Amino acid sequence: MSSLTVYHESSPDLPNKVLTHLDDIASTLASVGVRFERWEASAAIAPGASQDEVLAAYRTQIDRLKQEQGYVTVDVVSLDSDHPQKAELRAKFLDEHRHGEDEVRFFVAGRGLFTLHIDDYVYAVLCEKNDLISVPAGTRHWFDMGERPHFVAIRLFNNPEGWVAQFTGDEIAKSFPRLED
Questions:
Q1: pLDDT, tens digit (0-9, with 9 covering 90-100), for 116-155
Q2: Which residues belong to the annotated binding site for Fe(2+)?
Q3: Which domains does the chain have, with CATH numbers?
Q4: Which residues contact 177 (CB under 8 A, 6 or more apart)?
Q5: What are phi and psi of 161, to 5 degrees?
Q6: pTM for the complete prediction?
Q7: Which residues are annotated as a binding site for Ni(2+)?
Q8: Beta pairing partners, 76
């Protein structure tokens, strides 16, 4: 079940609120400029599926997003617990960073934890199959796929050069809960 846990940045052990209803999650995130929607991921895709399989299965949704928001490129992240570089890939995005463009993800299988650091608050968004999240450019955040990754996410870009992570150097991510396997 998708969820949103909101913390003050000074109290990583004491959430201010935990939300599990879509409307509550979406409205809370919208208040800080983050898009969160539930889409239909109806095609049977398993972690480890090829990019071509995923893109073909979700062509209609991808075309809709490209038309709505002007995204120009798309790719797929598909990882399972057998991936030989899972630890290296996980570590890559566990530290707080930001991107020069929006970070858009449509989860078509599995789950991952986006944690957003906005003003004085931390928003931990557990994204699961059917969830679409769009994190605005410049938002400080980190992502955890867990020790045993199991997810497939479609990524959309306005400018692939903007995707390069700019690490903030803040150690805050080490204080907050990670994705539990």
A1: 999 999 999 999 999 999 999 999 999 999 999 999 999 9
A2: 97, 99, 103, 141
A3: 3-174 (2.60.120.10)
A4: 5, 12, 124
A5: -70, -25
A6: 0.92
A7: 97, 99, 103, 141
A8: 154
